[in-house]
């Protein structure tokens, strides 16, 4: 017992987190805490490596390029969400688009950073292989982590948790990507006059993969639903005008698309996001109805 306590006392904070995540994975059905603790442990353990990369000119270029890709993904994704909520291009709702970007950048930042950390973890076996090949030649490779004790055990535990986390990230993002592709295909088919039935992918209720997908689908649905409601509310309260040169309902608000078209926004509790968006002809003194 004393030796066990002594072994625990020499662990680093990241190793404690790995052990804690492993115990939760064994005794708990939910993987959310396991994923969060594993990502935190990986970030703590690999932060010195990222710092060494950042202090080199090439490393700065690579990291800046990487996060420019993150920003581009967030920009594109936010534009698609604004278009889905309002029904017109996000270019006409600049401030609402900016809000959507701010809401999605943290998500993409965490997700892609987690993927990068996991990808680095998947390359560790090749690092060990290279280390074994170069050791007889007297070539020493730099240390990836600062763990002074239980390096091999920590590596095995880290690899198991990282592999499980990567699988769950795939299960989380794959239905969303499939849904986006399906929606684009359906939109393309409708535009040429071909109607396609809505395809629903189902899995066996008793499978573990189905349970995980259901959990992640519910989590993603709650977040996306709240984001869409915030986008609709922001467009109504801050982007749209309460007065306009175009004819409008007294309770509605308007965003002018051009000299001839407007988007009229109504509060409507029957709508999913609480608001109704209608594209209408601008009827004004310059452009009368008759």
Keywords summarizing the entry:
mainly alpha, 290 residues, transmembrane helix, 3 strands, 6% strand, 8 helices
Instruction: Choose one word for the global shape.
Output: elongated
Major sheet summary line? 3 strands, antiparallel
Task: Specify the structural class.
Answer: mainly alpha
Element pattern in H and E: HHHHHHHHEEE
Low-confidence stretches: 180-184, 186-206
- Output the strand order for the largest sheet: 1-2-3
Provide a count of the helices.
8
Termini separation: 92 Å
Transmembrane segments: 7-27, 33-50, 62-81, 101-134, 155-174
Keywords: Membrane, Transmembrane, Transmembrane helix
Fold topology:
Blueprint: H1 2-9, H2 13-27, H3 32-54, H4 57-86, H5 94-122, H6 124-134, H7 151-191, H8 208-239, E1 253-256, E2 261-267, E3 275-281
Antiparallel strand pairs: 1-2, 2-3
């Amino acid at each position: 017992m004393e030796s066990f306590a002594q072994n625990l006392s020499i662990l680093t904070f990241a190793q404690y987190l790995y052990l804690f995540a492993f115990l939760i994975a064994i005794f708990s059905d939910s993987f959310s805490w396991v994923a969060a603790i594993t990502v935190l442990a990986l970030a703590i353990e690999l932060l010195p490596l990222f710092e060494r990369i950042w202090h080199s000119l090439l490393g700065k270029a690579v990291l800046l390029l990487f996060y420019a890709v993150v920003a581009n993904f967030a920009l594109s994704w936010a534009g698609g969400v604004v278009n889905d909520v309002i029904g017109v291009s996000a270019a006409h709702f600049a401030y609402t688009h900016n809000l959507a970007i701010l809401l999605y950048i943290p998500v993409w930042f965490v997700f892609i950073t987690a993927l990068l950390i996991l990808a680095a973890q998947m390359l560790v076996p090749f690092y060990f292989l290279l280390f074994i090949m170069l050791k007889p030649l007297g070539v020493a490779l730099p240390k990836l982590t600062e763990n002074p004790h239980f390096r091999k055990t920590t590596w095995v535990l880290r690899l198991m948790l990282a592999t499980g986390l990567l699988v769950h990230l795939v299960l989380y993002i794959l239905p969303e990507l499939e849904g986006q592709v399906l929606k684009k295909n359906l939109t393309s088919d409708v535009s040429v006059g071909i109607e396609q039935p809505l395809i629903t992918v189902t899995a066996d209720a008793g499978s573990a993969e189905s349970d995980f997908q259901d959990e992640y689908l519910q989590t993603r649905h709650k977040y996306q639903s709240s984001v869409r409601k915030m986008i609709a509310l922001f467009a109504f309260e801050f982007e749209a005008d309460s007065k306009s040169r175009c004819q409008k309902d007294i309770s509605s608000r308007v965003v002018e698309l051009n000299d001839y078209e407007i988007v009229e926004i109504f509060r409507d509790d029957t709508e999913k996001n609480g608001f109704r968006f209608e594209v209408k002809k601008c009827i004004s003194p310059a452009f009368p109805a008759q």
